[in-house]
Amino acid sequence: MAVEVNKLNSRAICVRIAPNQDLVTSIEKTCLKENILNAFIRGSLGSLTSANLEIAEGKSQAVEGPVVEILCLNGEIKCDDGDVPQASLYGVVVDQHGDIRAGRFIPSANNVCVTMELIIEEWGD
Amino acid sequence: MIQWPEFHQHPGEVDKERVLTKISHRNIAFSQLLLPGEFLSDELIKACRLHGLKSAGVNLVGGFLEDFEFCLGQKDPTVHNKINYRPPQKESAAVMLICANANIGIGEDGELLVHCHGLVSSHKGVPIGGHFVADKIRIYKQPVTAFFTGLVGAGFRQMYDGEVTHSIFKPATL
After folding, report:
1. Which of A39, A98, B20, B48 is the most exposed place for a label (fewest CB within 10 A)?
2. What value of ipTM does the predicted structure carry?
3. What is the nearest CA distance from B159 to chain A, expressed in angstroms?
């Protein structure tokens, strides 16, 4: 059974982030460029050279590379008072040995390895 | 403690464009039940065809998978600086799907292609995951719910990337 909802006023941007670009800030810059104020991240997968995750308040976890696969990623983009998009991204990653870690992706600390492909789904008019 | 993010020099020439984008000005959201006994990739592609879509992003929720195969990344031992997948790891018993994301786009052969990563719990209760070998994995026992964002006019197309020396999904006008 399929339930269909047409959303004629919203945009969806498909994105490929190249190697050695930061995951979080690349998404924020894309939203700034396209004037996206509120969005949800859909269909996101790829790999990182290493990962830095916030795993609890004030605690972070480094995941060593050379390649860390992103298993799941969910996130949203909201604007601060100055209409600057800020991305909050949460997910699960696995290193080359199969060790799995989860947390919030720390901005400017997660470089793409081979590729990151995702869809930024705009919410609102 | 945060470690300085690593830099990886891939074997090919670096492309100037570091973030590629294409905008779909109309997208379609729907959910679809993926049926037991069918291959994961077939069910995702069938749903796209049903809605006349060439590209979509999907979140998969719940259910079980059998003939589960997945890959982890590694440095290619034969090509300097190349990153590729290790040979697939196979699970002998059905696994429980915890979460997975997939993108569907047009492959180099012109047919719809699925790229899927996710996390499952093995029959022993161990979390495992990576790149799903979606054309070998079957839906097991009960339907898996898939939430689609279908893209119209733009989407993913598989293209060779000279930097990473792999064919990967890139945004394109469709």
Report:
1. A98
2. 0.96
3. 12
